């Protein structure tokens, strides 16, 4: 069994939150006894949710209990009901009395019975309130997991860039924005040993529909195609085509989607000399 895939499915979180089916509940309990890693993860999830719930617990409104009991009627039965019940019991003992047609007999519930009903209502309300808190906790945990994943991706991206900027084998070519887009800024990282070129897009407007950015190198006065930039280039290190060792500059133009055999000079956004 692929226990890692089972753990990552989220079934253990749902088990702890009590939202699994009876069959799924039995399955989790059975597998946690067989596989130590599932049992360990289950314990971790339980401890994590308990810790989070304790940290973010909110006390139910103080008026909740009072409001519920205020709507409960714990008064003793009215005198008429008592008298009528006694009359029925006496006449029944004497040979079977008949209750007049159209007249009802009040059934007197013991006080403990009505207290039990009220307690069950309170339990249901507090149970629903607790379930709502667990649901909010789960949503916050999911959001936290997404944020952590984004932070990890950002950290990985930053670490990759930092290593290349420090690597003496990479020549750093900065391409500032031209008049077309003065705020744009792109850096080409040229590996001098392999002639591999990577792009760090620091600032570049999103390409319009049907358009795509294209990288060029200038070799002996002529532009050479270096490949198309991904449409979703933000926060990525883009791997482009290998360049000619005699490249003297790099530039990016906005072309039709899929690229052009020659650059559109009036659509040049950034340019940097080697």
Query: Averaged pLDDT, please?
Result: 77
Q: Supply the CATH class of the largest domain.
A: Mainly Beta
Strand content is 15-25%
* CATH architecture grouping of the largest domain: Sandwich
Tally of extended strands? 8
Spans of at least 5 consecutive residues whose pLDDT stays below 50 are 77-81, 101-107
- Structural class, from secondary structure content? alpha+beta
How much helix, percentage-wise, in residues? 40-55%
Element-by-element helix/strand order: HHHHHHHEEEEEEEE
CATH topology of the largest domain: Immunoglobulin-like
Could you say how many structural domains there are in total? 3
Enumerate how many helices there are, as a single number: 7
Shape: elongated
Sheet with most strands: 4 strands, antiparallel
Distance between the termini: 55 Å
